Amino acid sequence: MPIFSSAFSQLDLIRQPEQPNDPLQAFDAADEYLLRQVAADGLNADSRVLVLNDGFGALAASLAGQARVTSSGDSFLAALALQKNLARNALAADAVTFVPASETPAGPFDLVLIRVPKTLALLEEQLIRLHGRLAPGARVIAGAMVKHLPRAAGDLLETYVGPVQASLAEKKARLLFATPVDKSAPRSPYPSRYRVEQPALELLNHANLFCREGLDIGTRAFLPHLPQHLGAARVADLGCGNGILAIASALDNPQAHYLLVDESFMAVQSAQANWRAALGERDAEFRAADGLAGQPADSLDVVLCNPPFHQQQVVGDFLAWRMFQQARHALRKGGELWIVGNRHLGYHAKLKRLFRGVEQVAANPKFVVLKATK
């Protein structure tokens, strides 16, 4: 893999999850551009730096030991990548403080570096939380590849921080410089809520949730076909989002035991709130994690999954395939993986490579619901 070079360090970086012969890098030209700018502006060892949405730790690891660095984002995999990349480059684990996006980093910060996220609602919430956490004279610089930089990102910076100036593009990357000005404390529109008719629920959704404003059509296709009569089964909702699949299943299966897991900290935060609202103090486990990695073999009876088809800006089925493999490992013999997926993704054929039986439970013109038996 290529070395990530900046004025601050030379780093050997890996992505998460690791894939054999991965053609993708753990950094891009926007990371390089941001660090060139920081070097040009100068950085003191006692400066407090906040890095937001650092994909795989390239920014935070580069600045580790150069300043007092806090990194914050909504991806467990990004946090894991940062941890591994610090160790991989012989940097102290405590050289960077990581704060999940479900929490608010403590300021004040002298410099804020932002990788513009795919979900602009997440950026908006992060900018709202910066209020009162910027030191006098603080610099706020956002960066992205030009193809992933919508005009709305600059509008949000101007609304919540101050006047914005855009850089020239370099290697198809661009920076946005926001000059902080005094503003009244903003009121966050997050979390948002929407209602579901069957089962009758109001669901809370923090800023970075997929389909935050309403139930996604894949889940809507899945809900009427969730497995029944589970008894005291051990059930995982893999990639749980706001928890709707587990909650709907739990309402029909009062003796079953549930694990809700997602790599988004805000998803797990939302799922926990929704579970409590619907099911009170009924016991369940909530986990921000790399899917079912680390889940003991033969420890689950049923896995429910509406798998993602992208990681950040990268589209593909590698995350879904990995989730299927994790589910197979965690399920007991005879255990079942239930999924919903777009017809064109061909999950039926993929599951047959891992499971002894694959059955189509339901279908509509766009989606299929499949049951795979170990």
TrEMBL record:
GO CC terms: cytoplasm
Signal peptide: none
Keywords of this entry: Cytoplasm, Methyltransferase, rRNA processing, S-adenosyl-L-methionine, Transferase
Domain called RlmG N-terminal: residue spans: 1-180
Pfam families, A to Z: MTS, RLMG_N
Main location: cytoplasm
Class of this enzyme: transferase
Enzyme Commission code: 2.1.1.174
InterPro entries for the chain: DNA_methylase_N6_adenine_CS, RLMG, RlmG_N, RsmC/RlmG, SAM-dependent_MTases_sf, Small_mtfrase_dom
One Gene Ontology molecular-function label: nucleic acid binding
Domain Methyltransferase small residue range list: 201-371
Database matches in HAMAP family: 23SrRNA_methyltr_G (MF_01859)
Entry similarity comment: Belongs to the methyltransferase superfamily. RlmG family.
Function recorded in the entry: Specifically methylates the guanine in position 1835 (m2G1835) of 23S rRNA.
Protein name: Ribosomal RNA large subunit methyltransferase G
Organism this protein belongs to: Pseudomonas panipatensis
Gene (name only): rlmG
